[in-house]
Specification:
Distance between the termini of chain B: 33 Å
Number of strands of chain A: 11
Oligomer: heterodimer
Number of helices of chain A: 0
Number of strands of chain B: 10
Structural class of chain B: mainly beta
Shape of chain A: globular
Order of helices and strands of chain A: EEEEEEEEEEE
Helix content of chain A: under 10%
Radius of gyration of chain B: 14 Å
Radius of gyration of chain A: 14 Å
Largest sheet of chain B: 6 strands, mixed
Distance between the termini of chain A: 40 Å
Order of helices and strands of chain B: EEEEEEEEEE
Chain lengths: 114, 116
């Protein structure tokens, strides 16, 4: 199985930069995802990492270190609409079941203040 | 439709009743997941279907929960003899494939279940 840890809550100022960390333990790592979930809505895909390094997509970047079991999501030029929960999810290759199970962390609730 | 469709969007039931939740995935998506999200909590994996392979049921919390999928189309999640702790949003997601470089999940809007 997996053990995924991320901070419960974070607060940051509009226009600033915030980094949301995620650590994980898994036996068959097959990719790490970040999702955004606004209150009362379904999660939406932000980023995907399977190799070590930084993936940049506009104001959002995601980093992965497989040897450390560590990822972060970096949000730049924060906007009020970025207030949401950010979910780290790890895909595990469960060779026994022949499936690719995607397990989510509990999410980090980000509040952006003026 | 273009996205994942779930029904009903809201369901209120009495303790002890059975409920059935439906998910219609994006056409062509071979992978389908069910998750449960209690208020203020993260997503809890329930079950995963991939094509015609045996489903991964490792997340189902008890034998009151079951799910079926016909081929690569509609899935139903059934909860028998509902309990108050079953109250949650049940999210369905589909994906183009089980592995590969991009297994992005597309989520439905969820079915909010309230057990009185």
């Amino acid at each position: 199985g997996q053990n995924i840890d991320q901070p419960t809550e974070m607060t940051a100022t509009e226009g600033a930069i915030v980094q949301i960390n995620c650590t994980y333990q898994t036996s068959g790592f097959n990719g790490l995802f970040w999702y955004q979930q606004h209150a009362g809505e379904a999660p939406t895909f932000l980023s995907y990492n399977v190799l070590d390094g930084l993936e940049e997509k506009g104001r959002f970047s995601s980093f992965l270190s497989r040897s450390k079991g560590y990822s972060y999501l970096l949000l730049k030029e924060l906007q009020m609409k970025d207030s949401a929960s950010y979910l780290c999810a790890v895909r595990d290759r469960n060779s026994g079941a022949g499936s690719y199970q995607l397990t989510f962390g509990k999410g980090t609730k980000l509040s952006v203040i003026p | 439709g273009a996205g994942v469709s779930q029904s009903p969007s809201n369901k209120v039931t009495e303790k002890g009743k059975d409920v059935e939740l439906r998910c219609d995935p994006i056409s062509g998506h071979t992978a389908l997941y069910w998750y449960r999200q209690r208020l203020g909590q993260g997503l809890e994996f329930l079950i995963y279907f991939q094509g015609n392979s045996a489903p991964d049921k490792s997340g189902l919390p008890s034998d009151r929960f079951s799910a079926e999928r016909t081929g690569e189309s509609v899935s139903t999640l059934t909860i028998q003899r509902t309990q108050q702790e079953d109250s949650a949003v049940y999210l369905c997601a589909s994906s183009p494939g089980g592995g590969g470089l991009l297994g992005e999940l597309f989520f439905g809007e969820g079915s909010r279940l309230t057990v009185l």
